[in-house]
Amino acid sequence: MRATLLITAKDLRQRLRDRSAFLVAFVAPLALAFAMGVTISGFSAGGATYQIGVVNLDRGQAATAFFSTAEQAPVQLNTEKNAASARKRVKDGKLDAAIVLPRGLSATFLGGPAVQIDVIGDRNNQVGALVARALSDSYASYARTIQLAARALGNATSSLQIAQKGSSLRSPVAVSDTSTTRKNLDPKTYYAAAMAVFFLFFAVQFGISSLLDERRDGTLARMLAAPIPRRAIVGAKALTSVVIGLTSMVVLALTTHYALGAHWGNPLGIGVLIVCAVLAATGVTAFVTTLAKTQEQANAWLSMVSIILGMLGGSFFPVAQAGGVVSVLSKMTPHAWFLSGLQDLSSGEPLSSIVEPSIVLLAIAAACGALALVRVRKLIEP
Amino acid sequence: MNREQNSSVLHCEGLRKRFGEIEAVRGVSFEIAPGESYGLLGPNGAGKTTTISIVAGLLEADAGEVTVAGNRLTTKSVAAKAAIGFVPQDLAIYPDLTARENLSFFVKLYGLRGKANRARVKEVLEIIGLSERADDQAKKYSGGMKRRLNIGIGLLHSPKLLILDEPTVGVDPQSRNAILESVEQLSGQGMAVLYTTHYMEEAERLCDRVGIIDRGELKAEGTREELVALLGEHDKVHLTGSGHLEAAAKACAEIDAVEAASVGQESIELLVEGASAILPEILTTASSAGVTVHSVEMEEPNLEAVFLHLTGRALRD
Question: Is A205 in the same domain as A353?
Answer without folding.
Answer: yes
